[in-house]
Structure formats: C-alpha cells, structure tokens
Write a structure and sequence with these properties.
With 420 residues, the protein is of the alpha/beta class. The chain has two domains: 48-203 and 394-411, 3-Layer(aba) Sandwich (Rossmann fold), CATH 3.40.50; 216-389, Rossmann fold. The chain has helices at residues 11-43, 48-53, 68-80, 114-121, 178-191, 204-215, 237-241, 244-252, 265-268, 270-279, 295-300, 311-318, 345-353, 365-374, 377-389, 396-411, and strands at 56-62, 85-89, 105-109, 125-130, 148-152, 172-175, 197-200, 225-228, 256-259, 286-288, 303-306, 323-326, 354-357.
C-alpha cells in the first residue's frame, strides 16, 4: 500500500493565515504607493521653486469630526485676519465640510485611517496644526516637506496623559498651565530630546464653551440629572466596574441619567459596549448620547460621573459643576505619566472637584451625589483648578492665532526641518 501524505489545516489556522496574507498584501500596496510618491518627488528634487509654489501655507489636521469644536474658534480668529487655511478631516460627515462662513478656510475629507496618514506623511505644507498625538511614533510620520508641527491640546489637563511618546516629535506645543510645561521638560530631559517651543495660550474651545453656556440656560428641568461619561480602555469605569454604577443609579436613585461613553469605547471595547446597550436600552429615565457634540448633555447634567477622561475638566471648569470620579486604580504604564517623578496634576486635583467613587461606595451613590451638589468646598476647588490649568481665560483663540501666524511667517524664511 502506498503511503499518502495528507496535509490538513484546521479552520482556525486557515483563517489566521488568510488574515496574515491579506495584511501582507495591504502592506505591499501601501509601501509601493508611498514609494511611487517618493520617486516622483525625487525626480523633481532640486526644483525648489516648484515645490514651494505647491506648498500649503497652513494645514490643520483633525482625526475626527468631534475636533471641529476644538479648532473652530481658532479658525474663526485666523479667518478674521485673512489667513488662508486648509483643513483635513478623516470624517466624511465632519461639520467643517458644510460650513460656509469662513471664506479663508478650505475643508477636505482625506479618507479614513491609513489613507489619511499616507497623505500626511508626504504632504507639502509649511505649518501643520493638529490635536492628534503620536506624530513620528506609529503610522503618522513627519513629512520632510513640512517645516513646523504644532500640537494643540483638546483637554484642559496633563500633557503627559497621552499614550507614550504622544508629543515627543512636535516642534511646538500650545498649553494652558505651567504644570504642563514642567511635564514636557521632564519628559524631554529623561528621553534626551531637544527642547520644543512651548507657549501658554489658554484654551480656545473652552472660552467658546463658556460663552455658549451663558446663552443657553436650561429652563425645563424637573429632576436632578446625572451624566455618566466614562473614558475607554482598561482603566475606564465600564472595564473596571462593569454595569455596577449604572445598576446603582437606576436601582438606588430617582435621578434622570444620561450615558455618554467616549466614542473610542465603541471601537476598542465594542463587544462590552454592545452588551451594556442591550442590558440598558433607553427609557424615560435613561438616555444614551452618542452625538459628536456633547454640549446638550453637559449643559443639562447637574453632576458628572467619570474616571480620568478629559471631559471632567470641560464639565467642572466651564459649566462650574461637581463630579464623582471613579477609583479605577489607574495604571500609567502605557502613558507618558509613567516617566514622571510626580503625581499627575489630574489625580492631584480630583479631590478638590468632587468625591471618589469606589467599589465599596457604589451602592451608596445617592448620598455621594447629594453631598457633591451641596458642599461648598467643591466650588472653591473648581476655582483653584481654573487658576492652574486655564491661563488667559477668554484670550485663547487670539493667542493661539498669534502663535500660528508667527510660525507661518518664520516658515517662509527657513527650509523644512530634518526628520527627528
């Protein structure tokens, strides 16, 4: 009898090999596309006039439509000064694409994911402004045709709160508190990085937010409203406590409840979020908010429950309301926090803004909420936080525009910087 060799690949292994094959093909397509762009630029190397004539003077990059609220006050100020801007977004339904009041702003949808970063990596621009961290770390590389990268914060808290190396390779960072400068300098020293240009400018979007609050008072409230606004990832409320916080709010209180998870949680924690949505559908008392604009939820709520999300500071500082902050045993290992010899400002200031919610006190959530709403010390804590993390209140857009214009003028006089 002849021996017959038979090869068998189980379905799981076959699926894995197919996934690997698709990934390799995708990489090769992306690689040769970028290579072709580089070859075209190499052919025209030395033709400086041609490159400069095609250069975008000022490019603003937004990785999602929700960042329009961060950039709009800045764009409004630049537009008022007659500064031409190009705005790249990765959201096909970004509100910037339908705006018509800024004649000096040209908005473009540049694709999602790697398609957008492929364009960014070879873009010919003098100055790029972005709130997206991670330049030079993962798929977003510095383009050799860009002269200056500016990072704009999208939250009023620690600059070290980004994933590791989040702002290392920007040329300048616009900040809102001295402690943020101290954090950047400490990170630079420990990583042997050249000193970036750091400028205190304030927080443009929060200036706009505060003015909007005054123009939109809530007049139809009949009940206390609690906003549950967790972040995403392993340190978030839902990952640490599951539905215990929601269980307690529904079973132990008569409050109205708004749940507004971080948008990334529906991507990174998709299965978990689908389970929570199924367990707790909307009702007369419970509303889910997944809109890109968080204003209505923040404006309507009397108190917020969150973890380490930057939305805490929008709520406490702009809306002047208290919080319950969840003790999720924050793990700093993947964040720039890990490198600091100090306690993050965010964790230091939280006790001044509200009460801690932990596994033991979840069942007593009503008394915690009531204390936060009535004790006056938290008002003093909010005033303290503003003084430390919101400099130049009301001047953020003007000071940010001043810095951007200055960098655009300087970019006209110098060649693009080498890759860092």
């Amino acid at each position: 009898m002849n021996d017959i060799m038979q090869l068998y690949i189980d379905p799981g292994t076959g699926s894995m090999l197919f996934t690997v094959l698709i990934s390799i093909v995708g990489f090769l397509v992306y690689f040769f596309r970028v290579l072709w762009v580089k070859i075209k630029f190499a052919i025209s190397r030395g033709k400086t006039d041609k490159v400069d004539s095609a250069k975008i003077p000022l490019l603003i990059f937004a990785e999602a439509k929700r960042y329009w609220e961060v950039f709009e006050p800045i764009c409004a100020e630049l537009n008022k000064r007659g500064v031409d801007m190009v705005y790249w977004t990765t959201s096909p339904d970004d509100p910037v694409l339908s705006q018509e009041k800024y004649e000096h702003l040209k908005a473009e949808f540049v694709g999602e994911g790697n398609k957008a970063y492929a364009k960014l990596n070879m873009v010919n621009a003098a100055v790029i402004v972005a709130s997206t961290p991670g330049l030079g770390v993962y798929q977003w590389k510095r383009s050799k045709f860009v002269k200056h990268y500016i990072h704009v914060q999208h939250a009023a808290n620690d600059i070290a709160g980004y994933r590791m190396f989040g702002t290392d390779y920007f040329d300048s960072i616009l900040l809102s508190g001295q402690y943020q400068i101290d954090e950047v300098r400490e990170l630079e020293k420990k990583r042997f990085l050249p000193a970036k240009e750091l400028e205190l400018v304030g927080i443009p979007y929060m200036d706009t937010l505060r003015a909007k609050i005054k123009d939109n008072p809530v007049t139809d409230k009949k009940n206390t409203t609690v906003l549950l606004a967790p972040s995403w990832g392993p340190n978030s409320i839902f990952n640490k406590f599951g539905t215990k916080v929601l269980d307690s709010l529904i079973n132990n209180t008569d409050y109205d409840i708004i749940v507004r998870p971080h948008p990334q949680s529906f991507i990174a924690d998709k299965d978990m979020m689908e389970g929570i949505l199924a367990k707790y559908p909307e009702s007369d008392r419970l509303k889910w908010d997944r809109s890109s604009d968080n204003f209505n939820s923040l404006n309507r709520a009397d108190i917020m429950i969150s973890d380490f999300s930057g939305i805490i500071f929008d709520f406490t500082l702009a809306f002047d309301k208290p919080i319950l902050y969840a003790d999720t045993e924050f793990n700093p290992d993947c964040y720039d926090y890990y490198w600091l010899d100090r306690q993050p400002w965010t964790l230091e200031i939280l006790p001044d803004l509200g009460l801690k919610l932990d596994g033991e006190s979840i069942g007593d959530i009503k008394s915690l909420v009531d204390r936060c709403l009535t004790e006056t010390k938290f008002k003093a804590g909010r005033d303290k936080a503003r003084s430390e993390t919101w400099v130049y209140m009301g001047e953020g857009a003007v000071r940010t525009a001043d810095f951007i214009v200055k960098k655009c003028e300087e970019a006209k006089e110098k060649p693009a910087q080498a890759q860092k």
